[in-house]
Amino acid sequence: MILNEAEALRTAATGQAPRLNVLAGRTVANLFFEDSTRTRCSFTLAARRLGADVLDLTSAGSSVSKGETIVDTALNLQAMGVGAFVVRCSASGGPHMIAAAVDVPVINAGDGKHEHPTQGLLDVMTLRQSLGDLRGRTIGIVGDIVSSRVARSAMFAITILGGNVVTIGPPTLVPKAFEKIECGPGNVRVSHDLDAELPSLDAIMMLRVQFERSGGGPAIISGDYRELYGLNQSRLNRLPGHAPVLHPGPVNRGLELDSDVMDDPKRSLILAQVANGVAVRMAVLRMLLANGG
């Protein structure tokens, strides 16, 4: 339902149609206590293209930097008439804590190593645009899986739609336990050999190595990560011709992806993901807030 709504909003999401004004008079607060470009900007654009007012708040510019809890920050903003919160934070479960305290919708924009639901939605939206029905398709997710909330949300979304996921990376970053993360009817499998998996993939999603989450930085460097798991032109040529390349961003050029692969106009869907992010977030905001939600 959300994906269908997002497809219907694609023209408005790209700014090629007048804003819809279905959220006129409503205020959406972006509480971003971690750095972000794509998610924060797309939620801001999504809200404005629906006619809402937007508050953008970061930890550096708020009383959180003085010791106030994120829950108290949200309660104070709700008292000012904020009608919904979009929350990104380093604490897993942070948005859930806020949702338990306030009386308005709360959208998880990424919490720690836990989840990033709207990213999972935009990823499957992009995959469906390229591949059609995902049932029986095999999607490779490559990289720092253990640190990635994006990977977790994508696994749930892909397997719900009947696709299969192969998580690929070094054992320190892709433990066997990830095979338990699935919602069916699709399944999740773990592999540590990217080259062996390439010919069987219908799409490949590369992930950023998250050094800031201490996902084994020294091990990544000493293990020559780029040599074993970077997507270069040679590896791209070993993928099936129909298989697109995705990445949730930001990209460490030359580590996860070589520039010629990232910028390939036929195979790379990275900018399509960014565009779809606005549409997905418009759909979520509209469904939660328009006409009482």
What do these coordinates show?
- The chain is built from 13 helices and 9 strands.
- With 293 residues, the protein is α/β, with parallel strands linked by helices.
- It has 2 domains: 2-112 and 274-292, Aspartate/ornithine carbamoyltransferase (Rossmann fold, 3-Layer(aba) Sandwich); 117-262, Rossmann fold (3-Layer(aba) Sandwich).
Task: Please identify the top-level CATH class of the largest domain.
Answer: Alpha Beta
Straight-line N-to-C gap: 14 Å
Say what the CATH topology of the largest domain is: Rossmann fold
Q: Indicate the mean pLDDT.
A: 92
Biggest sheet features: 5 strands, parallel
Secondary structure category: alpha/beta
Low-confidence stretches: none
How many strand units? 9
C-alpha geometry: globular
Radius of gyration: 19 Å
Structural domain count: 2
Output the number of helix runs: 13
Name given to the CATH architecture of the largest domain: 3-Layer(aba) Sandwich
The ordered string of helix (H) and strand (E) elements is: HHEHEHEHEHEHEEHEHHHEHH
Helix content: 25-40%
In the sheet with the most strands, the strands line up as 7-6-5-8-9
- Subunit arrangement of the protein: single chain
